[in-house]
Amino acid sequence: MPRRARARGAPSAAEPSVLAAGMVLAFIVFVAPPLLAAAASGAGNASASTAAPAATTVPVDVGLILDLATGLGKKSLLSVDMALEDLYAARPDFTTRVRLHARDSDRDVVTAASAAVDLIRDEKVSVVIGPQSTLQAEFVTYLANKTKVPVISFSATGDAAIQYHLPYFLRACAKDSFQAAAIAAFVEAYGWKNVVVVYEDDNYGVGILPSITDALQDVEARIIYRAAIPASSPDYLIDEELYKLMTMQTRVFIVHMLPGPASHFFARASAAGMMSEGYVWIVTANVGIVLDVLPQHTVENMQGVVGFRPYVAKSARIIDFMSQFDALFRAKYHQAHDVRMARPTIFQYWAYDVAWAVATAVEKVNRAGLANIGFQTPQDVGKNLVNGLPTSTAGPELLSSILEADFDGLAGRFRFVDRHMDVPVYEVVNVVGEKARGLGFWSPGSGLLRLLNSSFTEDQAKSSVSASEVLKPVIWPGDSTTVPKGWDFPVNAKVLRIAVPVRHEFKNFVNVEANHNTNGSRASGYSIDVFEAAVNRLPYALRYEYIPYDCANSYDQLITQVYYKKFDAAVGDVSIIANRSKYVDFTMPYTESGVSMLVLAKNDDRTTMWIFLEPLTEDLWIATMIFIFFTGLVVWMIENPKNERFQGSKWKQFSTSFYFTFSTLTFSHDQIIEKLHSKVVVVIWCFVVLVLVQSYTASLSSLLTAQRLQPSVTDPRQLLRNGHYVGYQNGSFVHAMLRRLQFDERKIKVLSTLEEYAQALKAGSKHGGVSAIFDENPYLNSFITQYGKDFQIVGPIDRTDGFGFVFPRGSPLVPDLSKAILNITEGCEGFQIQKKWFGDATPSPEYGSPDTDSVRLSLQSFKGLFIVNGFALCVMLVINLPEFIRAKSTELRNLSLQRANSSGEIASDNEPQQLQNNNAAPGEPLQIERETD
């Protein structure tokens, strides 16, 4: 198991690692001096002579801790010597000279810590360069913080080295977490979703896990396994871990190790046949940096590996340094058999820049007036190993001066950002032949790029279909140019074991029959045909076998078997629901979704006696009647003065006007109007009537049809209120949905067969049956194809995602099969499969009950017409009102004069008539006769 990374926080004396190191160091203090003296005479004195101060200069002691037995240690020591020589040759006016004291840490953490104690306590160094590895740097950082001696490492890239936030430790290199985003971008570009991280089982290896995990999650990829391999693992342990990786489906591996353990690991991977076609190997920067200088036999085992490393642009200064370095290194160490191993890497560039920065900072502090760069001896010296160390008086000033360094170094701009070097660009390389071939670059602002001056933006890079459009073509392991799909069948399970549920009903979805010829089983059905059609569309062969599984009418048991990997997949009519998706992955659904309600159809041909009123709402009826009378009034007002048909008694005028208006409803009105204004009013009104009549006819037809197709139940709440019985399919998750809808358990019945469905609905709740059956739409559609005319589907009542195929979490088959299913369901092949099992047409559910309100016409629908008509009526009313008033005034005057004349004639003839009728009976009216000419 991988070790836990140390928790962030301030250093504590109670930490086990610190106590253990202190106890070991206490022992080494008494034993190590002779050994350290020998190492100093063999290495330190030779390097110190390089920086021997002149008589007029001030010597400043600087410590250097390296693994001098390694190529990195030897090269870095030479690089530091070259930096000091070049600096003082270019700046002869410097008043200080760095005097190096090199110590060999012998690739051991305790030895490196002992060397640091010796340099600080005995040599009184002002700055320590190193140590070389992250593990060695962890304890040295405590010494640096305790003694205020700045410690600068150019090769401790692990994140664990600075997790304690100790201010006197500086990292003049790029920390490992920087490359996590670059690796994740590479994984995303090729569409890989699952990866395995192989890391060194120590604090250095564990340090990258948080950052690489987060970066992969950001691109929707995940780490499915972490292989922790100790640095000194024997071959058989590495082989066991490699075999475990071979039994997984994932074929994308990210290796985070130091170069030595990584070389051993890839040698075993090559022997196990895992450096062949189909595999993807990605190495992090510590290995990527040294790919050009690894031994030939190691490079042969890493063919096709993709690596990441900080990018350093080739310049004239770099080329000149490489030439001098190669000559000096081969002359000093007699390195002639392998030219590759004499080349410098970016670690040597960083070492060169660090030495330059330290020497410059020492000179700056000395010129600032702190000529006595020394130490303050504590009072309790000798009583405690750590507390007895002296404290540097110039440490804070030296630290500040180093942090302020800003110059163009060999590795680029030398500038500290949050106490480490900021490397904005990584180079992506591919091991081909004897060298690492450049594929492209990655930067935070632009993502993956083939060239640094490319016009691609980050969004464009992310939208690319594949990395081949951005990076140069990769030569993958096995000399393959085909992009690996990132997964393969495990070596121990080449045939997928696919569970098929044994169904006793709805066999048109899944039907399992015994095959007597093979003593096995044969599966068929709609679900089986869709799965096999999807498999045939995959770009690779998929071997599988069907295994019948009787899940006792509960598909949750089937899901559990796939979750525990008893089966590699499950194919059948398995519904996609949220609770199941927590444990397994589903492909894209291949059927329609939703849960609906199956009810008995009510073939009621009877209609209500007032159904003719239902097409129009009350407000529309009222508005229509108002406009009928208003239109008749306006027509009467316009026509009355001069049209004799609109004259006469009041009852005659009223009946003529409004009979004419009503007759326009059936367009049977007579041509009795004469004036132009009346005709304008009638034309506009007839248009309104035309729209109303046509809409009324269509709405009434819909209502009459809906009356005949009305289901017996339209709402689950109606069943709840009336206490009706309901049913569901045996073993279905719909039972939980009914309980969620608050149906009483005693009112829920379990049904198993199609015949039971039909019989229960026909019997009804009052006769031992049910009033409705709740089930998924595919099952109900299958039922309707056989019993269609007597039943109806009402819904959907609840939402589901339909049927899908089941795979374990993270299965790489899911996206490929989902794409294939989408192509099938959208094309003719899906229709042919559906026709094979369900006939020419599969009925769709009637979504919702027949709603008469949806076909009724309201005033809102005709508001525009009535506004136009009302406006026209008002205009005609205003135009003709004065004429109408004048006509009525004239008529009244004529009537008054007529009455006046009539009354005068009666007064002159009144007396003779009275004399002639004196003999009339009382109470009888006088008979007045009027003489005529």
UniProtKB/TrEMBL annotation:
Q: Which UniProt keywords apply?
A: Glycoprotein, Ion channel, Ion transport, Ligand-gated ion channel, Membrane, Receptor, Signal, Transmembrane, Transmembrane helix, Transport
Q: How does it sit in the membrane?
A: Multi-pass membrane protein
PANTHER family in the cross-refs: OS06G0188250 PROTEIN, OS09G0428600 PROTEIN
The record's similarity note reads: Belongs to the glutamate-gated ion channel (TC 1.A.10.1) family.
Subunit-structure text: May form heteromers.
* Annotated organism of origin: Urochloa decumbens
Tell me what this protein is called: Glutamate receptor
| UniProt-listed GO biological process terms | monoatomic ion transmembrane transport
